[in-house]
Sequence to fold (951 residues):
Amino acid sequence: MIAKKHMPHYMMVLPFMLLFAVFFLYPIASGFFYSFHDWNATTTTRFVGLDNYTRIIGSRDFKKAMWNLATYIVITVPLGILVAFCLALLVDSFKGTWSNIFRSAFFMPVVLPAFLAATVWRWIYTPNFGLLNMVLGWFGLPSLNFLNDTGSMLYALIAVDVWVSAGFNMVIILAGLKNIPTDVYEAARLDGASPLQQVRYVTVPMLYPVLFFVTTYGVISALQVFDVPWLLTGSSFASYGGRSNALMFPVMDMMGRGFGSLKFGQASAYGFILTAIIVLFTAAMFVFRKKGYDQ
Amino acid sequence: MAQLEIVNVSKSFGKTDVLRNVNLDISSGEFVVFVGPSGCGKSTLLRMISGLEEIGSGHMRLDGKAMNSVDPARRGVAMVFQSYALYPHMTAFENMAFSLKIAKQSKGVIREKVEKAANILRLEHLLERRPGELSGGQKQRVAIGRAIVREPKVFLFDEPLSNLDTELRVQMRAELIQLHAKLKTTMIYVTHDQVEAMTLADKMVVMNGGVIQQCGRPLDLYDDPDNEFVAGFVGSPRMNFMKAEVISTSKDSIVIGGVGGEGRFEIPFTGFDPAIRKIKLGIRTEHVGFVNGQPEQVSLPAKVAFVEELGDVSHIHTDLASGERLVIRSTGQRYAGSGDCTAVLDTKGLMIFDEAGQRIRPTR
Amino acid sequence: MTIEAAAEVPATRSIALTISPWAVLKWVVAICVAIVAVFPIWWMINVVFSEPGTPVSLNPRLYPTSLGAGFDKIMMIMRETDYLKAYYVSIAYSLLTIVGVLLIGSMAAFEFALFNFPGKRLMFAVVMLSLMVPTAVTIIPTYLLTADLGWLNTMQGLVVPGLASAFGLFMLIQFMKTLPREMLEAARLDGASHFQLYRYIALPLSKNALVTLAILTFMKTWGNFIWPLIVAPNPELYTVGQVVGLFNSPYSHQTVDVVMTANLLAALPPLVFFLIFQRKIVEGIAMSGSKG
Fold:
């Protein structure tokens, strides 16, 4: 009786839930299963317990990838958001058409597929005849091999990343700015707050939820960085990560173990390690946010 | 014969009872208004008639057929919503034609019926417009047109005028009365505005706390309310209430004291139950005045708090010695002063309620 | 009161004067940033539309110099490589994904946003939790499943696993929640069946959200690099992304200008889309951001 009454509802959600179960829930479950097995996609599986996990955590590539990731996140997320915030304030300070024109211009890199952004930047970074080295040449500076010098590779990546993500975050922050009622600023001005003080005491606190979202989202996507460093380096399963693995990142390492060395058991385990990190981080962010509200 | 019978209907959301044992008969062609404060269950009752809300317990019959498990679309009812609920992506014509289209009527029939309804509502020139291009009153008429097109046995209106400004509301009220006269179909109308209820209703159903307090012709409810709630709800400004004590009773009169402080007087009343001591007096503002001299009138000292001057009448709000508020309606002269005065009660207008708020009527 | 008002007039005037250097600075910064943001794309266009072989020292490619050379390169790529085929694949991949995501997502969103039925909360919670699970963890098992189904190097292998988009569902739910309940009730009284409510009321009223989701889905599918890379390694089913990857690979022996032509062709659809639908795209991203 109840089932019959609700039948139309179930019929409508069925396609989504079916696909979701088959192509999301099942893969997660099977991935969890593989992560405890040694499997190369052809031979039968062999249970190995936590071997995959311990092997990954013990490997040099993993440590390098984690170290790179940590450095990358610590720089790229705050820098990206700071830039996006300033751009949002800048766009917001213009009126009408000019505001739209600048917004569109700053947003343009987001539209470009990540794989294109990476390839274009690779050419900009090219030694000798690359655009950047050309500019350096005008100032009489020596040509640099940005993507092959372990000292500069990570920063080259961060530059691309900020270039790509700033527009995206800017648009979200801009929407947040528009939601702040103007009378709050007017009240602050009557209270004698300078423009800078208005940003500090009105804009930032009122944007708190938006900034929280942008930060959380930024870190979660940074944890999964793959396309851009992949294309800035060898971009094949035979060669990736760049010189002395300076641009080796966890997802890349995982993909390499899976599709490069066909160790799918290890690759699955890698995925769960990453998920654990992301879930821990997200939980930490929410606890942190709750504390922020309580104060 | 009753067209719509509501028998012992109750409904609760979780632990709160929204409706308790509602019994109501509605005859064919009646204009019935459910009125009461928000949360009194009037909208829930209407939605149960429409079928949008399930009937908790009890029965509902339309033309003798049980409606409890009939699909809303097959009940033969049409509803006009407070927010109009017009489909914004369709023109006025398409809005009105939607139900016919769903029922797979032919194009010719649809056009004929919609144009007929549009003619009744003077909407012909607006049919190609979308709701966004219509004014509030026009939207309301399209919403009514959408209901007319379905040729329902019963029209349901859920606070349809509350989104309109005062002037338009008065105008739409008049149009609804004319529409009812023309269509002669049963109409059930929900509102929280007692003035609207008084002006529209053949039968007025006053509800509070999920219970029907009283139902009847508007003026009967005004003149002869069953309880304190109805007495207070119907009529504007509100009826005055004062606590009082019965000092002594005789066959055809009682002596009451402690009215508004020290007031003590005798009023005619046949067959008062001598066991009752504490009562509440109710008196409408038009039965209170300043003029003294008539024998059935009694007076109380009062102090003017403030005056609402409306031009044709003035409502003089006064405080009695007991701290109770007594409002006096004065049409004779404009009152400009303040300070102490003497309020005169016309005992013919006095109503007596027991402590629980039930009316105590004289036996005849 | 009047005295204060009078005092205010010269004050604002002096602010207007002191603010002008700020205004200049603001413009300079905004224009510089705009150049940095747009220049790589501009540069890409210039490399394509200039004579090949001219040394950078003579032509630093700061503006296009030869339209003909650019078109020659485009024609050359179309003729001599499988670029056109990759275009078809990418367009088919994007369109099928858009249609699927919108259809399946809007049907489910309609139920989740507007009705109650047993199991709804649980289903919704599970789908929303999936937003937190990184693609990284599902991509390999999903790949293995697709392989088991025999869908490697097929269009359905590319499209179907991506149709149950939790993000799309979330966005549509947020929108459909704002549909007035009374309107659906009115339609129900008008005799519309459950499916007709979806078809005639919810779907047309969600047009804006659907268009926005369609555009965002297009951007995402067109730019999807990793999934086609692993699931369709056969050159027959190369997407634009993969072909561009080939052109750019360190082992390709193409010259810069040819590579940039390939890149420009890949960038064209999203750029054109952006220029047409700017507002929708920006609002869509802002909406998903401020509500997430």
About this structure: Chain A touches chain C through 96 residues (CB under 8 Å). Chain A has 14 helices and two strands.
